[in-house]
Write a structure and sequence with these properties.
This protein is an alpha+beta fold. About 30% of the residues lie in helices and about 20% in strands. The radius of gyration is 20 Å and the shape is globular.
Length: about 300
Amino acid sequence: MDIIKNFKRNKTAFLASILRRVSFLFKDDEMYLKLLYLFELHKWPDLKQPRTFNEKIQWLKLHDRKPEYTKMVDKYAVKDYVAGIIGEEHIIPTLGIWDRFDDINFDELPRQFVLKTTHGGGGMAVVICKDKTTFDKAKARRILERSLRGDIYKAFREWPYKDVPRRIIAEKYMATEVGEDGLKDYKFFCFNGSVEFFKIDFGRFTDHHANYYDTDGRLLPFGEAAYSPQLDAGIHIPSTLKEMVTVAEKLSKGIPFLRVDLYSICGRVYFGEITFYPASGLGKIAPNGWDEKIGNRFKLPMLELKR
């Protein structure tokens, strides 16, 4: 009955979910991505001469496949990679790494910690423990084991994740500055090694919104349809903004597009993660026209020579 209701409410979203479940049947990555794009964004993509941001993200999935990208999306292996570029002082300490949830010795972990899978994507696969005495292990197990079973490569053809070992990592819990509502990450969109703008999510677990800003911290007139911007949100721009821009550009040098997620904690910049395909190139950008305007910000390798 629920399946019928979901289908009537949003046929294309329902079809996209079914498509992802049978993704293993598709050997042709390009056709699979075109169908997924059609169901999610309600239009057929041009992957021969892509113009929009989302179309170019799909093109990168198909044509920009470098071996080092696997290390860059592995939440454990990436730490050594990043430390070699910007220094160990920007790395959040690792407390442990395991193949299975049952291998975790919680007695050895501190009172506060963060758990996540090394191959997972999105904040929903992150478990935050602020007090081990009240920690819900059963819930943590459900979240992490579901993430361990997930396959971003098959579902979205995000090639870098194909060979990432599926493990659980524990990291130090990083306290926020006084007065802040949760630990915010600053997501820098880098085009050919240059930061064009960054994103701040807020109200993620209550009323999720996201604002976009230029490198001077000025609010920009676009956003995500799913997490609409709030122009009067009064989001604090940290004093470390210029340092974060520098760090993001160092990490994205020589890459057509990269999103670098960073934290600003008590005046210090910490690395979060690297993302090649925000929203897997399937997030609707509003208002209309901004998908193409953002797509104009970067050139794809080899593509310009084909025109």
